[in-house]
Amino acid sequence: MKSDQGFTPFDRNGNRTYLTIEERRAFLLAAHSADPYVMTFCMVLAYTGARISEVRNLTLESIDFSLQCIIIKCLKKRNRVVYRAVPVPTDVLLTLDSVHDLRNDYSKKRRKLWTWSRTTAWNKVSKVMAKAGLSGISATSRGLRHTFAVSAVQCGISLNMIQKWMGHADIETTALYANAVGEEEQRIAKKMWSYL
């Protein structure tokens, strides 16, 4: 699984590569008891489906209160500069504002919200995953990205909207997330089981 194009619901050992909705909730709950900067970092990862490096690069001006979204600079576009806007719940924006003093410190709008290295950010996310009782390939920032896309598919959000939010160049990449086992697949299987 070197890139999103290689997404499969399970790795070669049969381990799930994304979190379930309940596991995502446990991660967010564990994040709420962490340091406020760690909490907001984890929230943005979970609510945007952004890559860990994309979240590390967010600045004050990346947060758009009027559109109620986070503007993310895509990092996998080679020489092109591409931004995507991902809508987030109001509570996420208010929490970001409270912790990072977004609206009162707008004179420094290009200031990064987190100044950690990629390794430090990864370690902080790993600690929150462990605190939530989660481990394995799905308990990573990449797992959170996959979780975002799988959850969006399972909620019936159109693939072209998910493609936009994820920053995928091709809809085929986004369509791979429809292969994950979800509630709809369980409902279909239950209909079949009733005939056995």
UniProtKB/TrEMBL annotation:
Keyword rRNA-binding on entry: no
Taxonomic lineage: Bacteria, Pseudomonadati, Pseudomonadota, Alphaproteobacteria, Kordiimonadales
Protein family (similarity comment): Belongs to the 'phage' integrase family.
Protein name stated in the entry: Tyrosine-type recombinase/integrase
Pfam families noted in UniProt: Phage_integrase
Origin: domain of life: Bacteria
UniProt key word DNA-binding: yes
Tyr recombinase domain residues: 14-191
Keywords in alphabetical order: DNA integration, DNA recombination, DNA-binding
